[in-house]
Amino acid sequence: MLLAVSVALTPTPARAQTDTERAAASQMADEGAEAYQKGEWARALRQFQRAYAIVPAPSFLLYQARCHDRLGQLDEADNIYQRTIENGDGDKSATAQQAANEARGEQRSLRQRRDALRARAAAPATTAPASSSDSGGPSGLRTASWAAFGVGATGLLVGLVSGGVMLSKKSTLDDECVANRCGPAQEGDLSGFRSARTVSWVGWSVGLAGAATGLTLWLIDRKPSDGPKTTARLVVGPSFSGVQGAFLRDAGVPGAANPRSFRPSPA
Question: Which domain holds residue 94?
Answer without folding.
Answer: 19-117
